[in-house]
Structures are given as structure tokens and as C-alpha cells.
Amino acid sequence: MQTWLIQALVLLAVAIFLYAAWRYQKDKTERGPSFGGFTGHLSEVTRDLTAAARANKIDPVTGRENELDRIVHILMRRTKNNPLLLGEAGVGKTAVVEGLALRIARDSVPQALKNKSVLALDINALVSETKYRGDLEQRLQKITRELEERAKEVILFIDEIHLISQMGGAEGSLNVSDVLKPSLARGDVQMIGATTWREFDKYIKPDEAFARRLQPVLIDEPTPARALEILRSLRSVYENFHGVKITDDALKAAVQEADEKIDYRYLPDSAIDLIDEASAKVAIEGEYKHHVALGAVHAAAKIGKEKVTRKDIRAVIDQWVLHGSEDKARDARHK
């Protein structure tokens, strides 16, 4: 009898444990994944850049000290404390916001910002599963309420902010930007936006009530000298990723070639992409070069890293220019 009772108690304990584990997993799924301690609807549609900075998952940001100082000044204002970064695609608007997250992670900001988290909104996640009229507005209202509850903890970053001015508004429903306006006006939600001048003029400027809540910050294309400084700060990141050695001459060539030959893109993004692709090319060629017939890597491959030189940069830029010429020829044929 005692043996039977012990077995029953053991089975009951196992059942309770399994049920508790199931409930925990179910509740966790319903809450959504946590990023940097945030849960609920907010965690489902944002990425915590400050947590990423503390985990060393954000690349170094340099050459944007003046712009970062201006953003901090605006964030510290009593009213209209929502910076709007304006600049062409590729000039580094998102990198500037990541630079702010790095400053916060290092406590290199005023006291009022030290406990803030910069949350980057994923617009694709925001609009997913919003099939019916009003679904998107309701979802954003829930997120806005969460932001208001954590007003002293969160700065919301919306890249391509003009997109929210294009969402909703069908058949009498609220425009998505209309959901944010009251919270921005009261100062219950603090936000950083980013867009291009063209999109600003087309979508945000006509909405005067929304535009008034934002303080423009111009993010210009960096000069070649500053772009070179940015590339030097990122050199170790790409060297470690690709397992190569990037020469200073290659960095200079990347800036020069991108500035002179890639007129449809902007520094520093174009030069960074050149370095990235040239490094990948050199790493692959080095692997093939040191590969012997038996499939083993030669010992020489382990002694020193392959070098990325000006020649490699030019080889990549030649491919880019050729591809651009083919695109133009194809477009001309279809006109």
C-alpha cells in the first residue's frame, strides 16, 4: 500500500511539473520574445539597440560626433524633443542612432538619458497579420500604451518614418501617424525618425501636425576624409569577419573609387560595401589558393592572412561599373 502511494505521489508531482512547464512556455509565447527586458507587444515589433550595444553587437560609430551631440540636445528638450534625421540613403542615418545607443551603453550621455533604451521599430513586424481594417491601428494603439507606461525608459526609433504616414487611413480609419500624434504632443512618447528629404517633402511635411512634433537633424554625406576615418574604425570588424588583412591603401582606394565612380550611391555606405565585397573575394581566393588536392588546407594558409589591396578594390568596382552599364542598357531597350 505504501509503495502504491509513493508511486502515485511521484506521478502526481511529475504531472504538476509538466503542467507548470507547459503553462510557462504558453505564457512566454503569448507575451512574445523579450529583447533587453521588454515584453508584450513592444518586444514583438522592436529591437533593443542599447542592449545590442552592451552585448558588443553594434559596429563602432565614428565621425558623427556633431550630429550625435545635436540629437542629445534635442532629446533633452522639454518640448519638441523628437529628432528627425534627414539624409540620403546610405549616408549613415541608422548608424548615427546606433552611435547614440553606444553612448548610452557607455554612460556617455546626460543623466536623464542613462536609463533609456533605444528600441528600433520593425515596420514589417508591425504590419504582419493585420489583415482587416483597423487591425494595424489597434495594434499600434496597444504599442503606444506600452510606450507611455515606460516613457522614462524608451526612445523609439522609426527608420523610414514616412512609411507610417502612408499606412492606414482607408475607409475612414485612423492614419497610423494619427495614433502617435497625441502621445508625441503630450511628451508621453519620445521618438527618433529617419527618412530622406524627398520622402519628407512628399509625406511628412504636408502633415503639419505630425511635422511640428519633429526636430530635423541634417545627416550629410561625409567628406572623403571623414569616410576614410569611418572605414578605419570598421577595419578590424571586417578583418575578423573575413579572416583577412585590409591595407590602408585599400581603404583609401575604396573611398576614392566609390566617390568618383559610383554616382548613384553615397558615402560611407558605398565604400563600406566595396571593402566588404573585396574582403570576401580575397578570403575565397586565398582559401582556393592554399587548398591541396587531398582537400586539406596547406600550413602556409595558417601563417598569415591574405591582404586586401587597392587592386582588389578596383576589381570589385569594375564589376559594379559593368553591372551598372548593363542595367542602363537594359533600361534603354525597354523604353
Q: What does this entry look like structurally?
A:
The chain is of the alpha/beta class and 335 residues long. The chain has two domains: 40-218, P-loop containing nucleotide triphosphate hydrolases (Rossmann fold, 3-Layer(aba) Sandwich); 224-334, Orthogonal Bundle (Helicase, Ruva Protein, domain 3), CATH 1.10.8.60. It contains 16 helices and eight strands. The protein has helices at residues 2-31, 40-45, 49-54, 65-75, 93-105, 123-127, 135-149, 162-166, 176-186, 197-204, 208-211, 224-242, 248-261, 269-289, 300-303, 310-334, and strands at 46-48, 83-86, 117-121, 154-159, 191-195, 215-218, 244-246, 306-308. It has a six-stranded mixed sheet. The longest helix has 30 residues, at 2-31.
Name its key features.
335 residues, alpha/beta, Rossmann fold, Helicase, Ruva Protein, domain 3, 2 domains, two-stranded parallel sheet, 16 helices, ATP binding
Give a nutshell description of this structure.
The chain is α/β, with parallel strands linked by helices and 335 residues long.
What is the CATH class of the largest domain?
Answer: Alpha Beta
Instruction: Bin the helical content.
Output: 55-70%
User: Total number of β-strand segments?
Assistant: 8
Mean pLDDT comes to: 81
Total helix count?
16
Q: Please state roughly what percent of the residues sit in beta strands, choosing from under 5%, 5-15%, 15-25%, 25-35%, 35-45% or over 45%.
A: 5-15%
| Sequence of strands across the biggest β-sheet | 1-3-4-5-2-6
Helix and strand composition category: alpha/beta
The number of domains is 2
How far is the first residue's CA from the last residue's CA?
Answer: 91 Å
CATH superfamily of the largest domain: P-loop containing nucleotide triphosphate hydrolases
Taken from the alpha-carbon principal axes, the silhouette is globular
> What are the segments in which pLDDT stays under 50 over at least 5 consecutive residues?
26-36, 296-302
Q: Major beta sheet, specifics?
A: 6 strands, mixed
